[in-house]
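Loading example: each entry is read as two labelled lines plus one structure line.
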Amino acid sequence: MNALPTVVLWLVLGCAPLWAQDESSSQLPAPAPSTALLDVPPAGPPVTDPAIAAQRAGAIADGLRCPVCQGLSAAASQAESAVAMRTRAQELVARGYSDAQVYDYFVSRYGEWILLEPPRHGRHWLVWLGPMLLLFIGALVVAWRMTANTKAPRGLCDPRSGSDPYERAVLDELDRS
Amino acid sequence: MNWKILVAGIAICTPLVWVLATGFGHDPHAIPTVTLGSKASDFDLVDLSGQRVHLADLRGRPVVINFWATWCRPCVAEHAELQAAARTYQGRAVFLGILYGDDPALAREYLARVGSVYPTLVDPAQHTVVDYGVAGVPETFFLDGQGVIVHKVSGAVGAAELTAVLAELVR
């Protein structure tokens, strides 16, 4: 019975990377190694509607860090470099580059540092899974301590298990009388 | 001695010490330069006097590209050093300024006052800023004759660093 929570926790934590993988497909893609984006053709046809290009560029800028005010996204910042990034993103989207290609472009210029959300590959997995791993270890420790405690009281409450020979002798005498 | 506690303590503390030891070694706000060693993005821009400058046309000579603005104090501070280096290496290296988030009229007025021996280019859309991964000004990029970025300085560039890098590039 005591093992049930541990088994449930195991299953939940075991499935966590799969959920994370599913989320990643709708958010930031894992960036490819540095490439000169402008040397590769756009993945799709040009986006002729400026409103759609601006909307997509805004969503992309939401996932990019402002190089000046580093706690803000490029979408939220009014710094010169953030404005330049938004303009560049919109221009690339209008030319037909996919979101993944635009992210790759920014990563090739600024490094993975520019992504507000750590990418899901390589050593970055540590950031995603580290807290869950620590939680799991903590749960194991708690489960182990609880198991140990449920066994311990039986012995402690039995006076005959004590090491005092006088106390044992008195109890034996009482039993006999 | 309780060996279990000792081993658990070491297992917990070792990663923490490693994270702290590596983390304290660098400025967390420093922006990594990932373009070093890669081909510089080409550009075709117009300078403050209306002359067209195409980076690809400059192949064969080292190029120094300085992103700057009139409102930026370190840019103003490094101006004399850059001008002096440009005069020293005239004919052996090309110097270019690129205006960053500034009004060309203000830049023209400033340069008329302090003088400049090399052109300052205007990039209205600021695409060059992002192509070079510029976070703020001043930033100075050093390109070799093949157009590869071999050195970058964030902040005001000093005379000693300019001389050292350029001496290596023109050799």
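Helices of chain B lie at 3-23, 73-88, 104-114, 127-131, 159-170.
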